[in-house]
Amino acid sequence: MIADADAITAGVSIGALQVQSLLDPLDNRVLLCHALALSRVGLITQSERVLDDDEAQRFAALVRRRIAGEPVAYIVGRREFFGLPFEVDGAVLIPRPDTELLVELTLERLPPQGRVLDMGTGSGAIAVALAHTRRDADVTALDVSPEALAVAKRNAANNGARVDFLHSDWYAALEAGGVARFDVIASNPPYIASGDRHLSEGDLRFEPVEALTDHADGLSALRTIVAGAPPHLRPQGWLLMEHGYDQSAAVRALLADAGYAEVQSWCDLAGIERVSGGRLAR
Fold first, then answer.
1. CATH code assigned at 141
2. Is 111 annotated as a binding residue?
3. Does the structure show a pLDDT above 80 at 93?
4. Which one of the record's GO molecular function terms can you name (predicted)?
5. What range does the domain containing 146 cover?
């Protein structure tokens, strides 16, 4: 049976019991819900249910994948972001709570019927969250990866969000297509420096490396975005970018040197300066 939402105490093969004990309770519960196709509430209400051999084997297989290091989000194929469900797979980064700060800052600066661009959209988390929250807004998102764009388009459709997607290497498609200017440009680009030990640790080992690192000093994508934004921003438009925990000063310097006004950084829930931005000074 399922004794509670966090543990299996009977009805499961000894192999499953051995592997599940190595996981934290949250991972254990998420994987068990996925194996049994149950919601968390369903798991609790069926606490007396006895797992058959097939169910126990499915759960054990999922747990072994987690023990091998595979992120839970990839195992179950989804992650919540800004209160919305998102499909995720190995083609896209897993949306993280820290990035919700970028969405909130963008919403604060987006005027009625405003236009916003999400650069390097990945799963579409930022663009879809914006479009879902602000139905009046014109949201455009771009990415260089066709595989990522396919995931993002499904997430927009599944969440009933209206987003225009472009296949583009940063500003290339905008310059070729003559797309109108934006009130806000937001981006969570690759910002981990080449050789950073974090790339070989934890969940990052399974995420698409091109979305994590610029294969340089961690600032090259941010430089490209800062330098290329002015022709694509409306007067007084904002550029907002997520970056690494130790990059805020460098990003502010990039913005200031490029002539942006009101340059500043904002802290995430952990008190780390996670997003920096500035306003076009004309």
1. 3.40.50.150
2. no
3. yes
4. peptide chain release factor N(5)-glutamine methyltransferase activity
5. 91-279
Question: What confidence category does residue 4 fall into, taking pLDDT thresholds of 50, 70 and 90?
Answer: very low
Q: How many domains does the chain have?
A: 2
Alpha-carbon span 175 to 103, nearest angstrom: 25
In a domain, 169, yes or no: yes
Q: Residue 266, annotated ligand binder?
A: no
Q: Are 183 and 234 in contact (CB under 8 A)?
A: yes
The answer to the question of residue 2 being in a domain is no
- Which residue(s) pair with 275 in the sheet? 242, 266
59 part of a folded domain: yes
160 is in an annotated binding site: no
When the pLDDT of each residue in the chain is averaged and rounded to a whole number, the result is 90
Q: Based on the domain organization, do 100 and 233 belong to the same domain?
A: yes
Tokens of 173: 């498609």
191 marked as binding residue: yes
Q: Is 143 annotated as a binding residue?
A: yes
Q: Model confidence over 175-210: pLDDT tens digits?
A: 876 667 999 999 999 999 999 998 999 889 999 999
3-state secondary structure of 128: helix
Q: Are residues 159 and 95 in the same domain?
A: yes
Record the pTM.
0.88
188 annotated ligand-binding residue: yes
121 annotated as ligand-binding: yes
Bridge partners (DSSP) listed for residue 79: 86
- Domain shared by 255 and 169, yes or no: yes
Q: Is 155 annotated as a binding residue?
A: no
**Whether residue 19 is found in the same domain as residue 114:** no
Amino acid at position 226, single letter: V
| Residue 38 domain-assigned (yes or no) | yes
Instruction: Give the C-alpha separation, 255 to 264, whole Å.
Output: 9
Is residue 97 domain-shared with residue 230, that is, in the same domain? yes
Average pLDDT rounded to a whole number, residues 70-98: 97
Task: Tell me how far apart the alpha carbons of residues 68 and 52 are, in angstroms, rounded to a whole number.
Answer: 25
Was 189 annotated as part of a binding site?
Answer: yes
